[in-house]
Every structure is written in structure tokens, then in C-alpha cells.
């Protein structure tokens, strides 16, 4: 990483320049409709290695390969597309759905964390599409944060974590969805949801006859065989510096519990609350996630708020739990991980 003197911030009109760096095997972060990604040429093992180094990412955590055109999928996978896969692609691409499929031999093992499968997605964000097209290579791109930190939803988050470690970032303002893509494994038997995200479980069920939810989505998994299926799920994730506690249950009881917890604390306390109950808390720094009736608003704000609490130096953060329907499943999955599964049920 020593060779990088400065991380250049590219405006929307400088995508071509950013694409040139990618062609030279360098790292450039870019906006997608979910979160910012840290891109490198997915077919160049040396470029991909830099991603793991810059993020401090464990080598067995595989990367998602991003394409801008469906024709590019063929060269990345080893089998014919199933009818199911084609249906999903027709329905949800471009968009926040990542498909795990058997990989072609030209995809380096370092990109897939040593696995025989590859995760592929076609982002919907015009700048992401433009960058991939100009670079003329598929881009491996994990979220552009230091490993274990909340995913970046603005270019400044990328700079906070990675300035001096990557060659550039394309600034496209705030990302739309705010939580990452849905990861669906199609490589064996029944389609399995490995990570809930921008495309909801309910939406998948409308398109597919059967979808299994991987147990790691809703609870901490300690068993190694299960961890092997979704390697990304076992690591510490989205965690701010402060201790995080998630309170789950009925809304009135959640509020009462958090009030009680605040009374028992001495340090600097943060509360991540919904608009409906944010006025309820005293003696705490309260940040509004959005309305309970607007999960889109909440998904856009959770990572940003976790970072803001860090900047304020709070010791503990209490978070109001939400319903798990629709985008709620993805939001709760991220909040549980941010809390390190430190959950109080009321
Ligand atoms: O929305 C997103 O998906 C963002 C943007 C930048 O596209 N990317 C992203 O990448 O979230 P990352 O690396 O932070 O998360 C990728 C997830 C991890 O949980 C990883 O384990 C899983 O996808 N994954 C990747 N390849 C896989 C594979 N072959 N089999 C199973 N899981 C895989
Ligand atoms: Mg990530």
C-alpha cells in the first residue's frame, strides 16, 4: 500500500479516469444503489489481493463480481444458466440481487475466497454501470469499508476508512438503498438466502417456488459446517467502537426497556430510535432512523448513524428493534450483527 500517495476523489464526469486506474490493476471505490463498493479487476489476482490488504479482509471471505451486461455472466460461470436463474435475472437485474453460481476456471480462486462458486451481480447505479463498461472488465467489489466497520453510504465514509490505502473513489453522493444486496445461493439444490438485502425474501418467493433462509441470517452460528456455506457471516460486522445492544419485541415494551436501561447507565449513551418514539428518551443522545412505517428510510440511515455515534464518542448504543417483514429482515440482520448478537428480548 506504500505506493499510494493520495486517494483521488473523482467527480461524476471523471469516471473514465477512474476506469483507467482499474485497468492498471489499482483499487477504485464507487457508488452502487446499495452501498459504496471497493472495485478491482476481478480476473486479475494481483489486483484482487490489494482489496483484501486495503480492507484487512480475511482471505476466505469471497467477493462479489460486478458486471454491467448480462452477456458477461457466461464467461464467469461453468454451467448453463438454469431456468430459475434466468427468471431471477429477468426480474431483478440490474438491481440488488447477487447470485451464487458454479465458477468458471478463469475466475481466480482469490476472488472467490477459495470456493468453487462465484457471486455475481449487476448493479443498477448508472455510475457503477458506466465504470464497469469503461474498465471493460468485471469488477470484484466488497463494501468499501475497513473490515468489520459499517458499510459506506457516502464517499466521505470511504475516505474515513480507506484514504491513503486505495487509488480513488468516484463520488456519487448518497447511495439509495443503504444496505447491501441480497445474496442467493443457486449452486446447490433449493435456492438459499445467504444474506437478506435490497431484494426482499417476499419478492424472491413470488418468483421462485421455494427459497430456504440460511440459519445464519437470523441468528449467530457457531457451528463450522454452517459457517462454510456463507463465509461472510462468521466475522465481526458493522460494528462501531461503542458497545451496541439491540432490544427486540413489541414497540411499547422496547421503549420502556430502553428507558430503564438508560437509567442504569453512567457513561455517554446513544439511542437509535424510530421517529415514532424518539421523543421518549432523556439523558441520551438520540438519533432517528426513520419511521417504522418507512423501512426504506431506515435502511438508508442505519450505517450512517452507527458511524455518527462513533464520532460523538458514545460508550453504549441502544437500538430499537423492528419488524422483520420486507426490508426489515435485512435491517434486523445488520443490526444484530452490529450488536454482536447482544440482544435483549422484551
Ligand atoms: O450490495 C452489495 O452487495 C455490495 C455492493 C458494493 O455491491 N457489496 C458487498 O460485498 O456487500 P461484501 O463483500 O461486503 O459482501 C459480500 C457477501 C459476503 O457475505 C460474502 O461472504 C458473500 O457475499 N459471498 C461472496 N461470494 C460468495 C460465494 N461464492 N458463496 C457464498 N457467499 C459469497
Ligand atoms: Mg461488507
Automatic annotation (TrEMBL):
ATP binds at residues 57, 61, 117, 143, 151, 195, 238. Keywords: ATP-binding, Cytoplasm, Nucleotide-binding, Nucleotidyltransferase, Transferase, tRNA processing. Its EC number is 2.7.7.87. Pfam families: Sua5_C, Sua5_yciO_yrdC. L-threonine binds at residues 34, 66, 121, 141, 181. The keyword Transferase applies. This is Threonylcarbamoyl-AMP synthase. GO terms for molecular function: ATP binding; double-stranded RNA binding; L-threonylcarbamoyladenylate synthase; tRNA binding. GO terms for cellular component: cytoplasm. Belongs to the SUA5 family. Residues 12-199 form the YrdC-like domain. The keyword Cytoplasm applies. It is found in: Cytoplasm. One of its GO terms (biological process) is regulation of translational fidelity. Required for the formation of a threonylcarbamoyl group on adenosine at position 37 (t(6)A37) in tRNAs that read codons beginning with adenine. It comes from the Bacteria. PANTHER family: SUA5, THREONYLCARBAMOYL-AMP SYNTHASE.
